[in-house]
Amino acid sequence: MEKHSLNESVGFNDAKVLPRVLIDKPGYRLALLNLRRGQSVPEHSAKEMVTVYALSGHVTFYEQQSPAELRSGDVLWIESGVAHRLEAHEDSSLLVVRAGQSVATEEALDLREVARPLRHPMVFAKFDDISVGDSFLLINDHDPVPLNMQMERMRPGQLAWEYIVRGPDIFRIRVRRVAPLTGSEVSPAVPTSTVTAIRRA
Q: CATH number of the domain that 35 lies in?
């Protein structure tokens, strides 16, 4: 059993849409999406059925090109795989449920044999390549706390980080995309000395 206070989870950010993932389990995800007036979520799709409950405010939800107005107390759902986006006309809070079995297979990214300077750029490249709702397993020989902090800083609100195995000798972490790229992301660079060494080898 899990209990969450929606009132405590409502909070807005003037610079960007603020998603708060409350539950993220295989086949079920519950998130609270907080948008300021004028903010939007770009078009994307999910591999599961999506249900959206409007807790407050007013948004226009687009399923492909078909609009639907959502105000406090309204609910809608869309089939899996259908492209959708939304725009907020007022400060709005939406409860978003994604449920159902995803057919996607979860790939593993094993960093144990990868040179340390290449690890973070490789994880960012993998993460930026997956769609909302997709995930991959990160395998490492130590707890990658600095990587988690860097991803939270450089991809705020876009990922969920879930430990499957937490040491002492091996760490398995599920990294899931919970929000789309904004288009302004910057990735960590591979140090020049490492690139030079690779070219010489």
A: 2.60.120.10
pLDDT one-digit tens code per residue, 39-78: 999 888 888 889 999 999 999 999 888 899 999 999 999 8
201 lies in some domain: no
- In this structure, the number of other CB atoms found within 10 A of the CB of residue 14 comes to 8
Give the domain-ending residue among 99, 130, 147: 99
On whether the CB atoms of residues 177 and 133 are closer than 8 A, the answer is yes
Examine the pLDDT at 32 and tell me if it is beyond 50.
Answer: yes
> Which of 114, 98, 107, 117 lies closest to 175, judged by CA?
107
**Domain carrying residue 41:** 6-99
Tell me, yes or no, whether 1 lies in a domain: no
Query: What backbone phi and psi angles, to 5 degrees, belong to 122?
Result: -65, -40
* Residue 123 sits in the same domain as residue 184: yes
27, burial (CB in 10 Å: exposed 0-12, middle 13-18, buried 19+): exposed
Strands (E), the chain: 18-25, 28-35, 40-44, 49-56, 58-63, 66-71, 75-78, 84-88, 92-99, 107-110, 135-140, 159-166, 171-177
Using omega within 30 degrees of 0 as the cis cutoff, is the peptide bond preceding 156 cis?
no
